[in-house]
Every structure is written in C-alpha cells, then in structure tokens.
Write a structure and sequence with these properties.
The chain is an all-alpha fold. The chain has helices at residues 6-24, 31-45, 48-64, 69-104, 110-120, 124-130, 140-156, 163-178, 193-209, 219-243, 260-275, 285-289, 292-315, 322-346, and strands spanning 350-351, 359-360.
C-alpha cells in the first residue's frame, strides 16, 4: 500500500472550500471593494481544480505501478462514472423543478416545460464530454474520466515520455482560447478534457512516474515559489482583465478559469505538499479531506436550492441584507452539502475512499474493507 500523504489529504478540503467560494461569487457585485475582494478570492482559488486533476494523475501512476494498469483503469472508469451519475441524480431534479416552475408561469404547460428541460439535459456532447448538460459545476468528472483515458492510453502503449509535451501542446491552445482571446480567437470551447484536464492529470502522472521526489530540505523553496507564483497569478489576471481591457473593478470582476501562472502555482504547491507528506497529520484536516469529493457532488444541488430560495424570498418582498446573504451562502453551501453527503452515506449507497472516487454500493454490502 502506498504511504499516506497527509498534506495532500489536508489540502483536499481546503481546495473544496475554495471551489465553493468560486461558485458562490463571494461579495461579487457588492460595490467596488466587494469586487476587489471577489477578484482576490477567485484568483487564489483557481489552484483547486488543477490540484484535483494532478492528485488524480499522481495516484493513478502510483496504483498502476503496483497492479495491472487495465484492471485499475476499469475500476476508475466505474467509480468516476458512478460518481457522475450520483451528481446528476442529485442535481437534475432541482434544476428541472425550476425549469417547470418558470415555464408554467409563462405560456408553457407543466408537461411541455418539463419535457423541454429534460431534453436540454440529454445532449450527448454536453452530457458525456463537456459535462455541462445539467450543471456546469459537474464538468470536472467527465473531464477527469477522459483525461485518465488519455493517460492510460499513453501508458499501455509505452509512450509515457510523450504525455507531458503532447498534453502541454493542447493546454497551450486552451490558454489562448481561455485567457488570451485578445491575441488569438480560438473558435471552440477549451475548458474541457483535452485542453485542460489532460495536461494537469498528465503532470501529476509525470511527477510520480519520473521518480522525482521533492525533499523536505527544499520544502521552504517550494513554499516560497508557491507564494511568489501566487502573486504573479494575481498580477497576470489583473493585467488581462483590467489593464489590457481598460476596465475597472467598479465595472465587474475578471474570472478567467486559468492562466499561465495557474500552472506554476499548482505545480509548486504540489511539490511542496510532496516534500512535507506529514504536514497536517496532527490536525483533523486529513480526515475532513475524505469528505471533499462527497461535498463536490452534492454542492451544485444545495447551492441551487439556496439561490432559488433567495430569489423567491426577494421576489416575494422579503428584504434580505446583501452582506449577510454573502456571508451566509458559502458556509451554508459547504455544510449543507456535507450534511446531504453524510445522509447519502448513512443510507449505505455511497462510499468514498481516501485515494479513490466514490462508488455506488449495493444494498446490504458490508462496511468492512
């Protein structure tokens, strides 16, 4: 069994909190200072999704070094697909309910609005590749599945040495299409498996398969690089969103998904965590880290319900303090999602391991491992 890396487990839950802050738009639109705060939080939080891709790629390399690659890949396909199915089953009903309510308030009947909403959820490209058919938040899961498929293909073909340069080539195109559109017009969506997930998953795979082990003696350098690149990330995003565009914080918040500095921040942070594997071992963070994936699959539905309730109350004439709402939404989404996940797990339908994604469990299956 691979040695537990407590530092990665600890950062999982921190990264999950940052992901939720991205989706709750903390203080966005609450004046200029609110937009500045949102920009800082959003920019800092962008390490989180690359971190999860890298972690998956790293542990995929760990596992296939100790067992048959095909057997483990099939296991991962099953577990990720199961996870995605659970996320869809939780999220689709609340999205569909709002579609029905809004359709019924207009010229459509309940049946026609329900059918229209259901059809929007079943676009094969959106459902199986982009992962945005029900909720854009769930895009990570099909992206991870397809990214691991690419990595697995290179690995069994004995061409692992080409993984990083090939995936980086695609990612470079993705960067142009995501953040540097003022220079090059990329006429297709690039936040997807090929142009985003593939590179970061390959990077994590490369770190382990290259047998490079960051040492504790250099951990201070890795931490310093993470801070330095974090500042560079803020400067780069500010330049892209405001200096080049001639915009101001009063006009809005620049929230590009990823930039060049994102690679540097995620890579240096991952090196730091590997150099300090016992960091956080004496805290509860590694244990909380086991809940991160469960919170991820439940939080789209919880967030949607909270935002919908807020919208209904506001339209009904109830005055809700804007600052109080922003201070409440993020923790309510986090703990509400945790509650839903724990309830599902208590029903013995879902289990999430430390180094694996969830699998749907059969009724009556033993808890023993």
């Amino acid at each position: 069994m691979a040695k537990r890396i407590y530092s990665i487990d600890a950062v999982r839950i921190i990264a999950m909190v940052f992901i939720i802050t991205i989706h709750t738009d903390l203080f966005q639109g609450v004046g200029t200072y609110g937009n500045v705060f949102n920009f800082l939080i959003d920019s800092t939080a962008r390490f989180a999704v690359p971190f999860f891709f890298m972690t998956s790629g790293y542990f995929f390399a760990v596992k296939i070094a100790r067992r048959d690659p095909t057997d483990y890949f099939v296991e991962r396909v099953r577990s990720i697909s199961s996870l995605y199915a659970v996320g869809l089953l939780l999220t689709a009903p609340v999205f569909l309910a709002k579609t029905v309510v809004q359709g019924n308030s207009g010229d459509q009947t309940i049946t026609s609005s329900a059918v229209q909403g259901a059809l929007e959820f079943t676009s094969p490209l959106e459902l199986f590749y982009y992962g945005t058919s029900v909720s854009e938040i769930l895009w990570f899961l099909p992206a991870l599945l397809i990214s691991l498929t690419f990595v697995y293909g290179f690995a069994i073909a004995g061409k692992s040495e080409y993984l990083l340069p090939v995936s980086f080539g695609f990612h470079a195109v993705g960067l142009l299409g995501a953040s540097y559109t003022m220079f090059v017009d990329v006429p297709f969506m690039v936040r997807d498996p090929l142009f985003f997930g593939f590179f970061y998953t390959s990077l994590g795979f490369f770190v382990y398969s290259s047998e490079w082990q960051p040492t504790p003696e250099r951990s201070a350098y890795y931490l310093g690089a993470t801070v330095l690149f974090g500042v560079l990330n803020l400067v780069e995003r500010y330049a892209l969103g405001y200096v080049i565009q001639g915009e101001t914080f009063a006009q809005g918040v620049y929230t590009a998904s990823y930039t060049i500095a994102t690679v540097l921040v995620a890579g240096s942070l991952f090196a730091f965590l590997l150099s300090r594997p016992n960091l956080g071992a004496s805290t509860s963070l590694p244990s909380w880290g086991t809940y991160a994936v469960g919170i991820y699959i439940t939080h789209p539905a919880v967030l949607f319900v909270l935002e919908w309730a807020h919208e209904v109350l506001r339209e009904s004439g109830y005055a809700i303090n804007t600052i109080a709402w922003h201070l409440t939404l993020t923790p309510a989404t986090f703990f509400g999602s945790l509650f839903v996940y724990l309830a599902i797990r208590r029903l013995r339908t879902l289990e999430i391991g430390r180094d694996t994604l969830p699998i749907v469990r059969r009724s009556g299956e033993s808890d023993s491992k």
